[in-house]
């Protein structure tokens, strides 16, 4: 096992060869699975920090925001760097709470790989599954770390089974735990068939002399040898089934060499064909060094990934500069823009093109970020993650590139808000400051939306959940010094078509002097099972030119903004343009856009629409003696129970509940379980209101 500790702060070179020794990775998991503790152990064991931070003490490096320390959870993704075995690891610790999924989305967009952390007792939890699906969408290679194996009830095999059944992956455990629960002391490495144990009291010894006490390495204990050999044989057979080159060696020799096994595991990880699974206890510093070795061995370097576009720049410091702005932070000392550099080299003082705004921006400073601390750098090269100061108008999702080689990269997706509150300044003199503060927060977090209620004129703040809005309002109070009042949360309803309508004819004719307007369309409207909106044309014979067909589609999209029931956004609609006609003089794009808009509005009214409300999957963990009361409360909240599992005196209930019914649920649950109950939520989409 490679356990050398480079000099703190040392980094590999940044030339083409140095890029192969960079790992840009995130740590993903459900809330309280141990992501932040694992990050702290990485920093400590690599010599980056000299004291282990603890979440419960509020002393962690990455949870530096006062609210994170007060609440004991990660709210904002934080970037840190460390060095291990000659590699530079750029880490992003992401939130585990569903309300901050936007932070995870923005991080995943720029990461090359990730460690998925799972609780050794709970296995795959709701938010574990959510972030896993997010990583799937971005094609991010992952390895898994089963944490908290020292807890009562921890079971590596059960977690591996849940990875297979819940996530649909092919888990490949490469370690066997030594001991169970409190007696967990180490792991057997099934690849090298060596044992590594961490005796109590060994952590951190020798730090005063600049050294670190690593695990005790030795042969596989006799009591575990037969089991370890059986599991290695199963690992080799699984790898041979999945990897053609490994299969050839297996057929010839009946086994796989260590080098072949490592190479095959790496290639299977990069392809997403299998999931390497390791285990340990981050809190007790057990299993961290092998995990660091696995990061360098199995997760990709920037050069292992395809170019940002097939016809464009490879990951090469000499190529034209290209970077994606994935995060904006407005601090008391200035505005920082976080960049992932995909190609080329950025130097202090360079002028770059923002392809989102079309403006050029000057980079005054380049900063290497260590959570809330920064150090100056003269340049940043392909494969690096840095922050820059200087750009004044760059937003999250913008591409910064060399002015002579413009290129627009795909921006991170911002989820639609589902909860809103009205926000007002208590003092009229603070109204302008409130507007400025909200605009700044929305600039930092694109999943926040600030608007105005057309009826009351109140400022409305919308976000991804009750906690998301609560944290935002608290930032206004703490950072801006504003005294604000907040209204009761409201959910974001949607409307959708019920029966649909066929052959609806609409003529848009306007003649008021000068050039007139004429557009004739015939449309079919029907429910769409998946997606928000779909449009297609079945017009034949050129009766409606392609230019006007596109205008009809644009008009239909305009009509989706407000539905007939209550002015809510319309979703789940398929529109087919079946026929139409034009006028030789009076037909135009604006005329057909208007026709599309009014035709769909009329179709929605005549075809019937239904109101949709956001629903969430709620996982409630309660003592057995409180199950009845909790089930009754879920029923009163229009919840539909979908599952129940008992684990040693504790029941885990799963239910689908309308989001509007979950406001204040934490207080009610504490009251019904004497403070012993906990719950998590995961948005699952929309359902008919009142259902």
Automatic annotation (TrEMBL):
Chief subcellular location equals cytoplasm
Pfam families recorded? EFG_C, EFG_III, EFG_IV, GTP_EFTU, GTP_EFTU_D2
The keyword GTP-binding is assigned to this record: yes
The record's listing under InterPro entries reads: EFG_II, EFG_III, EFG_III/V, EFG_IV, EFG_V, EFG_V-like, EFTu-like_2, G_TR_CS
Q: Which GO terms describe its cellular component?
A: cytoplasm
For binding GTP, which residues are annotated in this chain's numbering?
29-36, 93-97, 147-150
Which key words are in the record? Cytoplasm, Elongation factor, GTP-binding, Nucleotide-binding, Protein biosynthesis
Can the keyword GTP-binding be found in this entry's annotation? yes
By its UniProt entry, which NCBIfam families does this protein fall under? EF-G, PRK12740.1-5, small_GTP
What protein name applies here?
A: Elongation factor G
- Species name: Streptomyces laurentii
Per the UniProt record, the lineage of the source organism begins with: Bacteria, Bacillati, Actinomycetota, Actinomycetes, Kitasatosporales
What gene is it encoded by?
Answer: fusA
């Amino acid at each position: 096992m490679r356990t050398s500790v480079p000099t703190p702060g040392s980094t590999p070179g940044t030339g083409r060869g140095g890029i192969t020794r960079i790992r840009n990775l995130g740590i993903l998991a459900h809330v309280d699975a141990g992501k932040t503790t694992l990050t702290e152990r990485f920093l400590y064991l690599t010599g980056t920090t000299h004291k282990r931070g603890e979440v419960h003490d509020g002393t962690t490096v990455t949870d530096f925001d006062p609210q994170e320390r007060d609440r004991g959870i990660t709210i904002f993704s934080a970037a840190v760097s460390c060095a291990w075995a000659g590699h530079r690891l750029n880490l992003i610790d992401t939130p585990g709470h569903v309300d901050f999924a936007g932070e995870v989305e923005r991080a995943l967009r720029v990461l090359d790989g990730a460690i998925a952390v799972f609780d050794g007792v709970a296995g795959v939890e709701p938010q574990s599954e959510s972030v896993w699906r997010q990583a799937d969408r971005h094609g991010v290679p992952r390895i898994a770390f089963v944490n908290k194996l020292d807890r009562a009830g921890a079971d590596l095999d059960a977690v591996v089974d849940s990875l297979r059944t819940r996530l649909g992956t092919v888990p490949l455990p490469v370690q066997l735990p030594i001991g169970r629960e409190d007696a967990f002391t180490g792991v057997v490495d099934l690849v090298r068939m060596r044992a590594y144990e961490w005796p109590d009291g060994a952590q951190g010894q020798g730090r005063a002399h600049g050294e670190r006490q690593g695990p005790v390495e030795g042969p596989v204990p006799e009591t575990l040898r037969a089991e370890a050999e059986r599991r290695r044989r199963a690992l080799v057979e699984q790898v041979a089934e999945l990897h053609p080159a490994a299969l050839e060696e297996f057929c010839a020799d009946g086994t796989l060499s260590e080098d072949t096994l490592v190479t095959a595991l790496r290639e299977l990880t990069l392809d997403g064909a299998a999931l390497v699974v390791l285990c340990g206890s981050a809190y007790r510093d057990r299993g961290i060094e092998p995990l660091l070795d696995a990061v360098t061995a199995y997760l990709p370097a920037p050069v292992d990934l395809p170019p940002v576009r097939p016809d464009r720049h490879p990951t090469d410091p000499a190529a034209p500069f290209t970077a994606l702005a994935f995060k904006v932070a407005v601090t008391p000392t200035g505005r920082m823009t976080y960049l992932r550099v995909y190609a080329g080299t950025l130097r202090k003082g360079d002028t770059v093109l923002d392809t989102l705004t079309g403006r050029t921006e000057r980079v005054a400073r380049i900063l290497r970020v260590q959570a809330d601390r920064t150090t100056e750098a003269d340049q940043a090269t392909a494969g690096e993650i840095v922050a820059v100061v200087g750009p004044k108008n760059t937003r999250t999702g913008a591409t910064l590139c060399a002015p002579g080689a413009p290129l627009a990269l795909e921006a991170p997706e911002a989820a639609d808000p589902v909860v809103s509150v009205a926000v007002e300044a208590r003092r009229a003199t603070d109204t302008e400051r409130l507007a400025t503060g909200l605009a700044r927060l929305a600039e930092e977090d694109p999943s926040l939306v600030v608007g105005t209620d057309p009826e009351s004129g109140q400022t409305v703040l919308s976000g991804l959940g009750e906690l998301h809005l609560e944290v935002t309002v608290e930032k206004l109070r703490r950072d801006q010094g504003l005294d604000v009042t907040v209204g009761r949360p409201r959910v974001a309803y949607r409307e959708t078509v019920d029966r649909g309508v066929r052959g609806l004819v609409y003529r848009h004719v306007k003649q008021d002097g000068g050039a007139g307007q004429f557009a004739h369309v015939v449309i079919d409207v029907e429910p769409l099972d998946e997606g928000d909106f779909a449009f297609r044309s079945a017009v034949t014979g050129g009766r409606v030119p392609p230019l006007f067909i596109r205008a009809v589609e644009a008009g239909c999209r305009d009509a989706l903004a407000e539905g007939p029931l209550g002015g809510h956004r319309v979703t789940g609609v398929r529109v087919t343009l079946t026929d139409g006609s034009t006028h030789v003089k009076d037909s135009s794009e604006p005329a057909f856009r208007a026709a599309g808009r009014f035709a769909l509005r009329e179709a929605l009214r005549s075809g019937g629409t239904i109101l949709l409300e956001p629903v969430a999957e709620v996982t409630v963990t309660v003592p057995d003696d409180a199950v009845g009361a909790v089930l009754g409360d879920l029923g009163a909240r229009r919840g539909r129970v979908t599952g129940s599992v008992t684990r040693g005196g504790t029941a885990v209930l799963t239910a689908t509940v309308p989001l509007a019914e979950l406001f204040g649920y934490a207080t009610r649950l504490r009251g019904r379980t004497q403070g012993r109950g906990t719950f998590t939520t995961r948005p699952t989409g929309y359902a008919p209101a009142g259902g």
